[in-house]
TrEMBL record:
Its EC number is 3.2.1.8. This is Beta-xylanase. The chain holds residues 52 to 350 of 362 of the full protein. Belongs to the glycosyl hydrolase 10 (cellulase F) family. Keywords: Carbohydrate metabolism, Glycosidase, Hydrolase, Polysaccharide degradation, Signal, Xylan degradation. One of its GO terms (biological process) is xylan catabolic process. Residues 1-298 form the GH10 domain. GO terms for molecular function: endo-1,4-beta-xylanase activity. It catalyses: Endohydrolysis of (1->4)-beta-D-xylosidic linkages in xylans. It comes from Venustampulla echinocandica.
Length: 299
C-alpha cells in the first residue's frame, strides 16, 4: 500500500511531492509519482522569475505541464508560490512606489492563481516572509508596503480562486521548538491577520530538517495548526533520512486533526536540492529507502 493510500485511510487529503517537467518526463520517476504520491507541487515552475520574468510577460508553459500531468493522473496540486523574496525578478525588486507594487502584486497573483482556478487545492500565496526572530523579513514587499502586502496578496488570491485554500508558508517554524522566535512570530501575525479578515486558510511548515530536529515538530506544528483552519507540512526532507526521524515528522501531521497532508520535497536523492545530504525517501536507483518502509509499516 502506498503512503498516499495510508494517508487517505487516516482521513488526510494526500501524501505528495514536488516535481516539474524534467522529472515528469523521466519514466522511472513518473512511475513512482503515479504509484506513491497523491499530490504534486511545482518545484520551480510556479515561481515569479519563471511566471513573469518581465512585466506582463507571462510564461505558463512549465506550470501548465505540471498541472495537466497531475490532472490526467488524478493527482491533487499545491500551488507554489506567488509572493516570495527569492527567485524574484529584478524588475519587481526595484519597485519603490507603493501603488505600483500593489498593482504589480495584484496582477501577478490574480493572473497566476486565476489561470488554474478550480484545479489547485492549495496555494502558497506568501512564502518565507518572516525572519528568525519572528519579525518581517526585509524584502521589496515588506520594505515598500510593510505587512500590508500580505493582505493585498491574499485578497487577490481569494478573488482569483475562491475555492483554493490559501496558505502562508515558511521554514524553520517546526525545527526549533514551539517557543522559537520565528514560530511564535508567525503565530502572532497570522492570528492577527485572520482576525482582521485577511483570507488565510492555512499555515504551511516546510520542514527541511537537520539531524535531531524531528523531536520538535509535533509541539511546534500543534501550536501553528491551532491558529488557522488547516495546516500542512509542505516541503519535508531530512538530512540522512533517518527512518525514526521521518516517522516522527510525518506522524506529527497525522496526529493533528486539521493537518491535511504532507509533501516531501522530491522523490529521489540525486534530484533533491539538498542532494549531498541524501534527504529523500528513494535512492539513486529509485529504490525505497528504510524511511519509506518505516512509514508504510508504522503509520
Ligand atoms: C528550491 C528548489 O528545490 C530548487 O530546485 C531551486 O533551485 C531553489 O528552490 N523553500 C521553498 C522552495 O519554498 O521553493 C525551495 O525550492 C526550497 C526552499
Amino acid at each position: 500500500q502506498s503512503i498516499d493510500a495510508i494517508f487517505k485511510s487516516l482521513g488526510k487529503l494526500y501524501f505528495g511531492t514536488c516535481a516539474d517537467s524534467g522529472l515528469l518526463n523521466n519514466g522511472q520517476n513518473a512511475e513512482i509519482l503515479k504509484a506513491d504520491f497523491g499530490q504534486l507541487t511545482p518545484e520551480n515552475s510556479g515561481k515569479w522569475d519563471t511566471i513573469e520574468s518581465s512585466q506582463n510577460n507571462f510564461n505558463f508553459g512549465g506550470l501548465d505541464t505540471l498541472v495537466n500531468w497531475a490532472q490526467s493522473n488524478n493527482k491533487l496540486v499545491r500551488g507554489h508560490t506567488t509572493v516570495w523574496h527569492s527567485q524574484l525578478p529584478g524588475w519587481v525588486q526595484n519597485i519603490r512606489d507603493k501603488n505600483t507594487l500593489t498593482a504589480v502584486i495584484q496582477k501577478h497573483v490574480s493572473t497566476e492563481i486565476g489561470r488554474y482556478a478550480g484545479k489547485v487545492l492549495q496555494w502558497d500565496v506568501v512564502n518565507e516572509m518572516f525572519d528568525e526572530n519572528g519579525g518581517l523579513r526585509g524584502s521589496v514587499f515588506s520594505n515598500v508596503l510593510g505587512e500590508d502586502f500580505v493582505r493585498i496578496a491574499f485578497e487577490a488570491a481569494r478573488k482569483a480562486d475562491p475555492n483554493a485554500k490559501l496558505y502562508i508558508n515558511d521554514y524553520n517554524t517546526v525545527e526549533k521548538g514551539s517557543n522559537y522566535g520565528k514560530t511564535t512570530g508567525m503565530i502572532k501575525y497570522v492570528t492577527k491577520w485572520i482576525a482582521a479578515g485577511v483570507p488565510i486558510d492555512g499555515i504551511g511548515a516546510q520542514a527541511h530538517l537537520m539531524a535531531g530536529e524531528s523531536k520538535n515538530v509535533k509541539a511546534s506544528l500543534t501550536a501553528l495548526c491551532a491558529v488557522a483552519s488547516e495546516c500542512a507540512l509542505t516541503e519535508v526532507d531530512i538530512v540522512g533520512a533517518a527512518a525514526n526521524e521521518y516517522v516522527e515528522t510525518v506522524k506529527a501531521c497525522v496526529d493533528i486533526k486539521n493537518c491535511v497532508g504532507v509533501t516531501v520535497w522530491g522523490v529521489r536523492d540525486p534530484d533533491s536540492w539538498r542532494a549531498s545530504q541524501n534527504p529523500l525517501l528513494f535512492n539513486s536507483g529509485y529504490q525505497p529507502k528504510p524511511a519509506y518502509n518505516a512509514l508504510v509499516s508504522t503509520l
